[in-house]
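Help! Submission page says 'invalid entity' but I think these are all valid:
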Amino acid sequence: MKTAPVSPTEGSRDPGLHAMVEHPEVGNVVLAARAVEKTYPNGTQALEEVSLDIRRGEFVSLLGPSGCGKSTLLKMFAGLEQPSSGTIRLSEQSSVARERSIAMVFQEATLMPWTSVAENVRLPLELAGMPRRESQARIDEALELVGLAQFAKCYPRELSGGMQMRASIARALVVRPSVLLMDEPFGALDEFTRNRLDGDLHDLWEQRGFTVVFVTHSIYEAVFLSSRVVVMAARPGRVIADVPIDAPAHRDDGYRVSPPFIDRCRILSEHLVRANHGARQV
Amino acid sequence: MSRLLENPSTRILAPLALGIVFLAVWQAICVALAVPVYLVPKPTAIAETLRDDWPLLWSSLLITLKITFLAFALAVVLGVAAAFLFVQSRLMEVSLFPYAIILQVTPIVAIAPLIIIWVKNPTFAMVICATLVALFPIISNTILGLRSVNPSLLNLFRLNSATRWQVLRRLRVPSALPYFFGGLRISSGLALIGAVVAEFVAGTGGTSSGLAYQILQAGFQLNIPRLFAALALITLAGIVLFSAMAALSKWALGGWHESEMN
């Protein structure tokens, strides 16, 4: 008597997701990219066969030079771009109906200049149809988290670049996202402001326990923030290394000069140099 | 010099002083060369005419202003409606926009007689003429504004699954405001020009005659000071209109837009 092999095909279709179930200590996969490719109409290949799992509670940085497709991948996770082939999967974890699972912070603060900081932060709730009465507490909380409570009534132009970025982060946090996507959010800021925001962001991540996918081209930023760094290379955009950063959970300025920090930076740097060297031969 | 410019009253006093100097020179030349009044009247003669003919000129001004305002209001309503329609789909814009341009480039003087023949009510006919002149800047500027949306902000709206209506109301309309007000400034002046041109063509006499008709009549009668007086009133009306639009723009955008800072 023959037994039809039905279930194995079903199971083998997604080995990455399957493997996760066997390790309950790490979170479930919340975002999954499977053999994702992106080719633009002009023939530029932005991404070549990228497969990546983002697990609940991770802080994953996508690190690489310009043109490696890290922002494209992030936009795909956000659903703002579609892959040419392959699949992007997002598991909806949110149990509360009003809680949106994904929020995004862009390269620039992209605040609406015609209205106050508080109204900017209110926007996602308002778009979701939440009454003003209800949203006010959430807005206060989000502004408090990023340290902008006193600037609620200010217009964006009255804030410094770093504070505008804080407002932008508050706007993302106000929906209480389970996944926060950040596209080189601090790239335009000076180093001191960037370091301070990195520190605050890391504290927030520790407190709130959301999942972060963070695009950056700064090795130091990636090592400081991440629990895992995905190193990418350009032409075509691809993943060349996946490096866990299992350094201390609590990170402060002391961590920036500690041997483990420098060690991680060296490893990532080596990966990047090798990838770039390969690219230069072409 | 820069301190002089920082003083807000300079913005009014400087052009005023220049105007006084200009009028004084004009007066002096007229007196010195004994220019006949039917060629170029002295500014004082124009001022006297303004005073003597005030009831006539004032009622004419009111008629011209009525047509201007009606046409301007109509142009704003129609222009904004057309712009909203155009941005709904590229196909709509591609098929309709050439006709908006045709509307713009057709000389109003050429089609005004037709409109005046077709439309019984002369006031309404003149309003239509002036509207046609004032319409285009509103349409093109509002379309430009509705399309000038920060792409990242648009992505944010999409990420939060905003409806088409929400994107329009909360993002496109506020983004379009600076452009819309730019169109308003151009259009207000054009509405006045359109009204004057329409009056010239229509040439209605009797009680309901605007400033353009007074200019025509004064020309026929070689009453040159009255011609200049009517011209001065039209110019003044134009300046007031423009300033009103500038003030409106400042009021609406002063809090946030770069163009209205300082």
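Support: the input was valid. A stray whitespace character was the problem, and the output above is from the cleaned input. The mean pLDDT of chain B is 89.
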